[in-house]
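ok posting inputs for the adenosine-5'-triphosphate job
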Amino acid sequence: MELSVIVKTILKYWPMFLRGAGTTLFISIIGTLIGSIIGLLIGVIRTIPVPEKGIKKYILKVINAILSAYVEVFRGTPMIVQAMVIYYGSKQAFDIDMTPLFAGIFIVSINTGAYMAEIVRGGIVSIDKGQFEASYAIGMSHLQAMLNVILPQVIRNILPATGNEFVINIKDTSVLNVIAVTELFFQTKSITGINFKYFETFFIASVIYFVMTFTVTRILRFIERKIDGPENYILYANQMQVETPEDALRRERKRIGNY
Amino acid sequence: MEKIIDIQHLSKTFGTNEVLKDINFSVNKGEVVCIIGSSGSGKSTLLRCINLLEKPSGGRIIYKGKNILDDMHDVRAYRTKLGMVFQQFNLFNNHDVLGNCMVGQIKVLRRSKEEAKEVAMKYLKVVGMEQFINAKPRQLSGGQKQRVAIARALSMNPEVMLFDEPTSALDPEMVGEVLKVMRELTESGLTMLIVTHEMGFAREVSDRVVFMDKGVIAEEGSPEQIFNNPTQERTREFLKRTLQQNQ
Ligand SMILES: Nc1ncnc2c1ncn2[C@@H]1O[C@H](COP(=O)(O)OP(=O)(O)OP(=O)(O)O)[C@@H](O)[C@H]1O
Ligand SMILES: [Mg+2]
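and the output
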């Protein structure tokens, strides 16, 4: 490996790397977000208590069957194959001409959705039954209990798994080069098509991938800690009552001093 | 006296296990009724049937003259009239103490934030937890959690309070603080139905004591009668056993 080649490659092709990394991040972020929303929705629907009788029971059963099929199919096939089938299939069968970028986001979203659906369902099932019962006992509907009590806890609990999906998406968007999405892998390959320095150029790409995943992991840790709130609570006392004369004096001095 | 809850021929089976058999009893307005009985006799199940956390297999539950087991009955509106306190507290883990007492008021009773906060603070003071409004459930001791749970239930201004062994999950040194709060509540004229293993407490606060055994009400009467002159052999045996354990 020659350092000079690396430096030269960076100096010459940095706009291409940057655009590639940007596209990769863009697809991963949007895909993870939409996928998480899909996963949340499906997770919630799949944990609705099935009524004992009535047509509602059958409607719910049909919906659940369809959702299970979706989850199984997308978890059971490689994303690179899904990309080919959806991108070319939609063109041939339905005459829909997606841009590669749109197709990329679409594929990453529904793929992530399938994984997140299972993660969310697990998250909901693992919440203590008492949380539901206390919500119902206070008069909440199932939906109210979900929105106000269960889901906030589920989202906190699945945040590490979501972060994991995000990191996987940053790496796996590289397979979208098969449908010509101009993400980082595609750009890197294009550069090597010009300079033929495979090792050095892909080495740069791997460093960029690593920086992206590492940064994302750190940011998510930070968010987790933020959500957890402070380790200790402060006793809420009526401050006017506990103020000592010295405190009052100091406060008064400061006020005058500010003028 | 006005019956607020009237239970008629209530039964509950889990699979083939008949947990409640032909239960008949009522609670009058303003009355404090304690349910005692050995483990597995169906006390929790009875309480959970009353607020429909379990679906009764048969019988009627008449609340203020209306059968709430009718298909047409509004279950959620009915549940807001009953405050439930669980053995395991079941505070909402994602809310702090104040939030626990406000969320039901805002989402279910549609009270404004200001009103909900005012009501919540009032009842947090009643249970002596007004200093802890910022604390999350995981930061509280068992006794503190249970007092918040009581405040949460009271904040909905229920007509009846149901307690399912509120002190059974507590360390001995915390039982007192919760019983103290409950004792004060019994003096406020609130209707209360309490499942408890605290015999001293039951004897002291009850207007009436119900003794359950193997899914039936074996005996009911005034605390004096149940604790001093039980008519049933199984009541005598149960009391003897419990008193021995407490010594
Ligand atoms: N969800 C359930 N499914 C099946 N059986 C149940 C269920 N809940 C309770 N039971 C059974 O019902 C019986 C009565 O239980 P319950 O909890 O009402 O008793 P309890 O009087 O409250 O006892 P304890 O004093 O231990 O709380 C027990 O035999 C129990 O195993
Ligand atoms: Mg019980």
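notes: The pocket of magnesium ion (ligand 2) is lined by residues B 43-44, 164-165 (CB under 6 Å). Chain A has one domain: 3-257.
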